[in-house]
Amino acid sequence: MNSLEDSIVHSLDGNDNKDIFPYLPYILQDLWEMGASVNNIHTLIERYQKYFTGKLKILDLGCGKGVVSIKSAKKFGANCTGVDGMNEFINEAKEKAKEHKVSELCSFELGDIRNSIVNYKNFDFVILGAVGPIFGSYSSTLSAVSKCLQPNGLLILDDGYLNDESSIPNPNVLKRHMLMEQATSTGLVLLDEIISGTDEIKGIDEDMYKKINDRCNELMTKYPEKEKLFKGYLMRQEEENHVLENEIIGSTMIFGNKDHWLNFKIS
Description:
This protein is an alpha/beta fold. The protein has helices at 4-11, 24-27, 38-48, 67-76, 87-99, 113-116, 138-146, 176-184, 198-222, 227-246, 258-261, and strands at residues 57-61, 79-84, 106-110, 123-129, 149-161, 188-195, 249-257. Strand 1 (57-61), helix 4 (67-76) and strand 2 form a beta-alpha-beta unit.
């Protein structure tokens, strides 16, 4: 298993260079939303919340700065628990929760999801927002994460895949049928899916890149001896944005245990 630092750097497109790790809070300081589509996630929660009684319980794994949890608490009045491995992100999430007046509904905890996941049980929704297969594969990741759900709870995966017909060689991204096979092997069934539009993704990417570029340039001025490190990070962002805009289908999917939800399966 990779170290926590390696896992975080990989999920934040650091080109697996953990030397960038201590600079990530500075580079990403202007970003609150960092990958996951809050709107898509909320649309899916709205569609399925009627199947739950009482106050919703939501677990946000790899919560970053807490945007999904905070906005979910505000929109649905849900009790939200966010977990992330970066202390600076957790601290900012707590401050954002105060700012948005939902501190009583949000709990943010610092930890390595891969070790602490056994501590979380009986949630209505579990969200994996743009963190990838943190347990090594989607089958192992979804299997571990689904144990945090109550019996009829739902798992929301915000991620991306290649078209089944794609001939693009990308060893880091699965084709759709392969992702579905890994999900169904864990006893999950796909209930619903929202595809993100290319124009939407491009607009978000451009805004994020500008902010990241500005902060990397500041760091290059402050630490000229590390210019190669920061330029490498920017290059990785450009490459990632190209892939997201031209190769990968951005998707927000919701899965449930097939024993409870099989009749709701979509084609």
